[in-house]
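A protein record in our archive is deliberately plain, so that people and models can read it alike. The record that follows is passed on verbatim for readers who wish to inspect the format.
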Amino acid sequence: MNLFQKNEFKETPFLPVSPEEVPPRPPSFPKKPSPKICGSNYPLSIVFIVVNEFCERFSYYGMKAVLTLYFLYFLHWSEDTSTSVYHAFSSLCYFTPILGAAIADSWLGKFKVLSMVGLSLIALGTGGIKPCVAAFGGDQFEEKHAEERTRYFSVFYLSINAGSLISTFVTPMLRGDVQCFGKDCYALAFGVPGLLMVIALVVFAMGSKIYRKPPPEGNIVTQVVKCIWFAISNRFKNRSADIPKREHWLDWAAEKYPRQLIMDVKALTRVLFLYIPLPMFWALLDQQGSRWTLQATRMNGNLGFFVLQPDQMQVLNPFLVLIFIPLFDLVIYRLVSKCGINFTSLRKMAVGMILACLAFAVAATVEIKINEMAPPQPDSQEIFLQVLNLADNEVEVTVLGDENNSLLAESIKSFQKMPHYSRLHLKTKSQNFHFQLKYHNLSVYTEHSVEEKKWYTLIIREDGKSISSMMVKDEENKTTNGMTAMRFVNTLHEEISISLGTDSSLRVEEDYGVSAYRSVQRGEYPAVPCRTKNEDFSLNLGLLDFGAAYLFVITNSTSQGPQAWKMEYIPANKMSIAWQLPQYALVTAGEVMFSVTGLEFSYSQAPSSMKSVLQAAWLLTVAVGNIIVLIVAQFSSLVQWAEFILFSCLLLVVCLIFSIMGHYYVPIKPEDIQGSADKQIPKIQGNMINLETKKTKL
């Protein structure tokens, strides 16, 4: 005898174990029409949402634009550490949306999370804002205006990149062009984005009365987790061949959870499965603010009509997004459609991945060319040596080996600028070299110790009627991160204090004292203030270019007072920063096809009760992508161009996997979930007496 009849199943479905576990769905928010923009079908409320997003993104991207260089210049971290912390921060910002989505869908609702959590606590606020703001904007549209809602997501993404464009351009200027306490003004660069967050709060609150505010629908995240766990455990307990199979593994939760929740979870898990390959795309895209910025520091930012700082190159991404979104929506997609090609959302995302692969292949090519143009580095048991003759006449320099054999012989004029370093080979990791210096009719012998893989300058100076020499080690990091490095030799008989606009003055001892290195921004330095015990004066250092290293010898041999003799012994970066344009164009085109499409796809495929949850899951893929970069940066021993190739190949493989998964994915309309709930949950018939479902009520 059947325990359940068909007609009885329809009228008396299984109920939850207790009413507290799955609360009934609240009624839908009022369907009253909201005010429209100039008679269109676009709700007026989205204006406040879009402007709020502009301000919030200005704050976020403005802060991120200077973050990597803040780690490098201000905190003096290494490139790998700076990259790792940058991506760890980005990853945290995209992990917290899971918490924000849970609060929004289950407790406060999207509107209250945006205003109370997101804009009050910046650190956790990112998690409150990201999963809610896009979905909240989508909630402002009525179902009959689905086409306008799709365009809204493009406008929404435009506002993101408009804020990013302005902030990425302005905040590096605030950092570099304004001085705070004698150094780069990071306080102002971080303070202005903070002010924009306050403006975002005010603008968002202004639209409060006209928003359509869907109420929270219970603790949806907990319900989803419990529903999945119950389905798995129930299926595991009932493995008997006598128990009929069910169409879907989640149908095993039917004894405890409502049909509609099960259908919502089915729709959610189908999309989440499709999200598995996505983090690799974000791993590439988010390196614009780390690895690509570091690549820009080894390039020349002088474009002739404008000089770009390395961290300002990121402005290309939002600028190109503003151009590409209307170009793709109004031109490219329509042309593809007229050609009879069904360019679905998933196909657009796959093409976006391929474009990102090409972008990193181009970045690897640029990196190889940069390495070819960079000065050579000494290998094991090698040193680089240059000679600086500060005597008043020519000096013949001979470097002698252990067996008095000549390793290097040069005749160097007074204040002659050497074109390059000379490479000398060592027999061990450290070695003593003997030098013979011929000056007029004198021969002076001296000895200096050197270590492998180092750069050295032998400075020859007058010593009464004779000459002497001193060996100075040139620091390896003298041209780090695209800045200009300099050091001074003081030939005066007084100590000099030099003000370079940094946190403290640079002091150079008298009588051929050699200063430490000091790094400054690229630019013209026509009058650098200097001071001795008896007088103040200024030095004209001229143009200090990207990546170059200079030696200035301060002399007083003219009636014009102290002067600076300038020698560039590490040339400026030769490759123009404009060569990064192709890789930025490719990755931005990929972002438009992948990210904008994925944002709308996530909303359209989400059940009404789980839109913020699915938006948070989309953002979670960004967090995982940043973790991938963090791991590679910390544990990979590859040179930079090989690392770019590695990421490109990995994304290509992931793209193939995603394309196969997308081929078998059938997009659904959220309204179909409700209509098909009764049809797709299998009717539980037959002899079910042995089904193990503890504490299940009928």
Q: What stands out?
A: The first helix runs from residue 6 to 11. The CA atoms of residues 357 and 649 lie 7 Å apart. The radius of gyration is 33 Å.
